[in-house]
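User: what does the whole thing look like in 3D?
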Amino acid sequence: MALISLSHIEKPSSTVQWLRLVFSHLLFQDHTMALLDILIYPDQRLRQRAIAVDEVDAGILNLIDDMIETMYHASGIGLAAVQINVARRIVVIDLSETQNEPRVFINPEIIEQSGSQLHEEGCLSVPGIFAEIGRAEKIKINYLNRNGKPITEEADEMLAVCLQHEIDHLDGKVFVDRLSRLKQERIKKRLLKEAKQSANNA
Ligand SMILES: [Zn+2]
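Assistant: Here's the predicted 3D structure for the full assembly of 202 residues, as structure tokens:
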């Protein structure tokens, strides 16, 4: 990305150029990125089942940009729309070290899976809790990219884990559901207590 300072902006030499400059500025300003609130377990709204996106329009693209911004701000590697209380089938993931390679999965659907792997998982909706969860080792998925193009892709390792975790969110499931009842109760208690403490301190 190139950063430009005001002094380097070309002086518009014609009315057309001037109008183009003003117009592109207006377009650029049309959507200001927004940080969205992430629902925290055991919030019941994490249980909603998301519905498919039928058209990738400007509203959906704005939502995706906000989700990516929110994920980066929270230092997450994945975020599902249900986690920000939007019941649409959208997932964003970035597994790059530099956190500048966001991937977008609209209506992701696992069509094949094989093998198994154990991996420690965490979740922006379950802060401070990490647990080993068993998932399929390899998956094949169908989804739409941000241009609305249908894609079929195979995933393994972290991407497979992450996609399975996020697709669970779209079905109203949280990784904690895969732990024992006792562990679920402990996590619930701890997060409710922390929420109460932070509300008291606010
Ligand atoms: Zn999660």
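In plain terms: The two ends are 38 Å apart (CA to CA). The pocket of zinc ion is lined by residues 123-125, 165, 169 (CB under 6 Å).
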